[in-house]
Amino acid sequence: MLRIIKLGGSAITDKKKPLSVREELIKRIAKELLPAYPELVLTHGTGAFGHPLVLKYKVHRGYHGKKEELIGISDVKWWVNTLTSKVHRALIDAGIPSFTMFASSFMILEEGKIKEVYLESVKNYLKIGVVPLIPADGPPDLKYGFWIVSGDYIAYYLAKELDVAEVIFGVDVDGLIWDGIVLKEVDRKMLNEIISKMKEGKDVTGGMKGKLMHIYKIVSLGIPVRIVNLLVPDRLKKLLLGEEVLHTLFKP
Predict the structure, then answer these.
(1) pTM of this structure
(2) What class, spelled out in words, does domain 3-251 have in CATH?
């Protein structure tokens, strides 16, 4: 079955330290992904490699005619590429054929929403057993010049367009924690109620509330979603093998 797995920036980097990467964790996670190969599409967030720079250059709301904004989005792209290259290398070393593909090369946005997309390259690599690795990115936007798209948004859009069995979000917590408890199962109605009570996150993609809003869209497509802690060794691997592990399942 085809899965989309998003490696959260909060897990693969230390968001408290700009431009810090958890290389050993990335190498471990790459090995844990083996049970999902080859029916797998990967995306990842940028964490310490994206959010601080996006805010520094103020490019999270598009282009407003300033050259420093163009330098900014270029610098963000360069640093995110260095993070993606570490994920890509770890996948290859773990025995997972993969190919980095950028949303900015196959997506066109308008007012922050996808207007046109060409997914044939993604589909064809999947056919031959190559895992597409698609990081958060800054595709061109017909109104705003460019726009930041999160790994969460990419996961949602791909889930909508591909024949996906489930989506997994790897994060730095044990699942959705509500009133101090890790919720094991959440249906769509309960999820909507929780979202309505949450505050906006402080990062440029909306924090946990922004993530849950994308999860709501995915489960509304009839696709189950799971949140699992990547910081705990073997938890993702066991989940992929069908073993019982602590996580949150969002049911359509």
Answers:
(1) 0.95
(2) alpha beta
